[in-house]
């Protein structure tokens, strides 16, 4: 009986040890490879929505077309002080993504002349966007894309699931392209993601 | 008669063949019993069954034991490594140091200097001395750290503790100090930027020591804090703890999107893609790209790495690899506005035009810098344009355009009238430290507006100087990267320091990035 209990105890000790080691390996993998604590639920794959929009003089927006393309989309996380649209990508009423884009383009052009300190030409202009394309992160489960102004008034809604969007075969996202994409980590693509390991050890010091 | 059959499925009972004794079973020993490598010999003879010693069981048992042993070894190594790591961390106890003020109490007042002396106890010659100094960031502004009694000290910023800022001071003891004798180690000079009691009561509470764990990152920076506002900044080496972009020679030209200065995943950072326009020489373009990013190391943004610089990834669009030829203007425009090959939240087009010192910025979209802007180390046109297209900053020189957070139209109560740094001959500042400019404009006066803790910290020291885009607007600092003083002989240290409201605008713009 004692022998049996001893054997059972040993077996449980081995199982517990293996579990401990496994958890440690998982923890290490998570901290060094898996992207966590994102502020936005940015999708993993290098696919993006490409929207063709038209802005009127009154800054209302009209939809022209949408397609799914391959590539990196801006994340539009910058906080804009004024003159912007809010963008939300929704699955039903659940927000998958939110960001901001400028609703007008303010351009400053400046030509300096150090040989003549008095001379500087500076031109500032603010223009509506007119017809423009924009690239947004792609979400498999997105149902609509909503644009609203600074006061929160809805400006445009694009019902994504009313279009049959064909996903292209991705080919530009590959290991050794210089980008540690969200679907890469230091184990699957060390050349692109070695920065993550350095950052991990710097943070843990 | 011996019969060899497959190993029985039920639990094997062991019988020692040599002793002839029964063990764990009821079957007697048989003289013809033989050991088997892989299977039990079950001997049926006259209805009796005999089990031989199971060699495969022996092997399995041995394997089982070795696996368990290996697991225990691994665990022991992990635990041992953890202990080694823990015990290898030397702690420099603050109890080995003491701190006291050296500024006379009757001289302690707002706006004035407040100096502390950090002394070491029980030091030995040649011993490395490291101590942490924590101070109230809202009450004190660090001016300098100087060696007191030893040859040289160095210091570096450490992670803040809430409102309390921290630095780590280190040096090497040049003498022995045994027993209760204290030896001056470092003098830490502050400027008081907030109200404290007239008698200086409680001022010791604004500064304290803390233990430092060896092995923290970043090498120390030099101690001397050159206050020479009349001298233009020399091209001095970057502070040792700065993180300049990858040198040109180390850039990986096999990559489609060449990382120039990358701090994390594209989805967590503001990604700025540098694109070549008009460059026939790819290497020249790369050198200019590095130059464009290196400019930030010459500004005060290096003090805000976590809040600003480390939130930005810089990539170079490798047109040599992707397109195989210098880019046309149409191609450049397409890459800037529409291409998705590389991460791109903003673009920076570098235009090969050595005769032009100019830039174009589209707020929140991207910028263009012409290569003549790189002809002098004093010019930081790339950083200036970045202030526009990332920081949403306005020009502070006369441009007939009223800007955003770094300009305001309401003067302070002092109502300053004359610009102390006029954009005319002799292009020098005069009297810029006069009291009439020191009071902040109401837009940056936390006694008049509701300020967040970040605003309180950044708006400290803001003044009110006439001229900010238009003559009747005001800027918070006499000179900055957003004016034209970088081109004038009267440029000073301030020329390369973004002022508080500008920093607030930039930090706020990047607040959602990690």
From TrEMBL, chain A:
Which keywords describe this protein according to UniProt?
Answer: Membrane, Transmembrane, Transmembrane helix
Keyword Transmembrane helix part of the UniProt annotation: yes
| Ranges that cross the membrane | 12-30
Task: Write down what this protein is called.
Answer: Uncharacterized protein
Automatic annotation (TrEMBL), chain B:
Compositional bias (Basic residues) at which positions? 8-24
- Determine if Membrane is one of this entry's keywords: yes
Stored InterPro entries: MetalloPept_cat_dom_sf
Compositionally biased intervals (Pro residues): 230-247
Q: Which GO terms describe its molecular function?
A: metallopeptidase activity
Keyword Ribonucleoprotein carried by entry = no
Transmembrane stretches, start-end? 65-85
Instruction: List the protein's name.
Output: Uncharacterized protein
